[in-house]
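Record Fas associated via death domain, 221 aa.
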Amino acid sequence: MAFPSRGLGQDAEVPPARPVPGAGPSGVDRFLSLQLSISLGLSDTELDAMKFLCRDKITKGKLEKVQTGRQLFIILMEQQLIARDKLGFLKELLQHISRDDLLSLVVQFEPGELHVQADQPDEHERRLLKAAFDVIHDNVGREWKKLMRELGLPEVKLDKVEAAHPFNLEEVVFQALREWQKWKGKDAKVADLIKGLRGCNLNLVADKVEEKISQVNTGTK
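=>
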């Protein structure tokens, strides 16, 4: 059953992020970004269900003060029930409230991102994707996040790309497209990009992609 997104409410202060390997000094901590993405996706009913499941681990007084997912996660971290390398309990909570989409974000975060498909599209499809990426890169602009969500790229990956290039929109668009291709693996198809563009009402860009793909297929420039 789908639930409406909830407001943020009065959040407790989020503890300072620990350094992320490979990230710059101003990089967003991926573990905190994961928690934020999950928190924003929870309805009031789902949060209440998670609190209920934590009753044997967190005191009643603390649970009564929890109004957001982030506040709950802070307590779970303080009590060492979850950590960046200890996600089993968090996955159980999400399984019990039937939020497989949020569970997938946790799986994607886990070390090595073993879920990412190693196989990539064949050579011809890669050429088509490159041509499509060039068109999208030059034309989508600030609508990039809307497109990536339409394509199903997890929010935690969007946050990762945006945090890595906070002042370079062109690079953000390019890296987001690369993340989508890596995430989809051999299933990355230009047809999906065109469908995603039209789903965002970016029909002019979709038309340009189709024109470019036609040129690539016919060997014209």
